[in-house]
Design goal:
This protein has helices spanning 3-15, 29-37, 52-59, 71-80, 122-132, 157-164, and strands at 42-46, 63-68, 86-90, 105-111, 133-144, 168-175, 181-188. The protein is an alpha/beta fold and 190 residues long. A 7-stranded mixed sheet has the order 3-2-1-4-5-7-6, with helices on both faces. Strand 2, helix 4 and strand 3 form a beta-alpha-beta unit. The protein is globular. The termini are far apart. The model has no long low-confidence stretch (mean pLDDT 90).
């Protein structure tokens, strides 16, 4: 494991000793809206944290898989999803292609994981994700965007499209609330 990855794991692992600011305990409205409008299938949450969205989807008939590289987050997700069938893995999301997952998936979700990856890790993530998605499967991703005066710059809409254009088509885009961010809705090309 490289030193940068080690320190990122340490930082995020430490965050889960408490309640991290990104863990609201409430499923994302975009996820709830998608689940209400589509039949249940298989869902993959990349960077699932404590499993809030997984729990919501499982309670609505979805077969769920969650991946996070913070072992403590996965431990908390296991407790939260107790009694719900779910596969939870502590794993590196840039190595999705190497994982033993129960796909293919109708839905993949990423709320804030992709935008934290380095430029060299993004193509491996996108390629691995494409491998696990059903044709026409939906990929919902929430990512920060560049904002004046902020330390973390995020990704532009054009950068997001470029990262996924080989295997996915952008079908919808919604500007986020509060800080500079957006929801991207991609479908897997056939």
């Amino acid at each position: 494991m490289n030193l940068t990855l080690f320190f990122r794991r340490l930082k995020f692992g430490f965050s889960y000793l408490f309640r991290p600011p990104w863990d609201s305990g409430i499923p994302a409205p975009e996820v709830a809206r998608f689940a209400a409008d589509h039949p249940a299938g298989r869902a993959l949450d990349i960077g699932c944290g404590t499993g809030t969205n997984l729990l919501y989807l499982a309670q609505h008939g979805w077969r769920v898989t969650g991946i996070d590289f913070a072992a403590l987050a996965i431990e908390k997700a296991r407790r939260k999803l107790q009694g719900c069938p779910a596969k939870l893995l502590t794993a590196d999301v840039t190595r999705l292609a190497e994982l033993d997952l129960p796909g293919p998936y109708d839905l993949a979700l990423d709320m804030g994981c992709f935008h934290s990856l380095g430029t060299h890790d993004r193509p491996r993530y996108a390629s691995g994700l494409a491998q696990w998605m059903k044709p026409q499967g939906m990929y919902l991703v929430y990512a920060f965007q560049p904002a004046e005066g902020e330390r973390f710059q995020g990704l532009t809409r054009a950068e997001m499209i470029a990262c996924f254009q080989d295997a996915f088509t952008l079908v919808n885009y919604e500007q986020g609330q509060g800080r500079a961010s957006a929801w991207y809705y991609f479908t897997r090309k056939a």
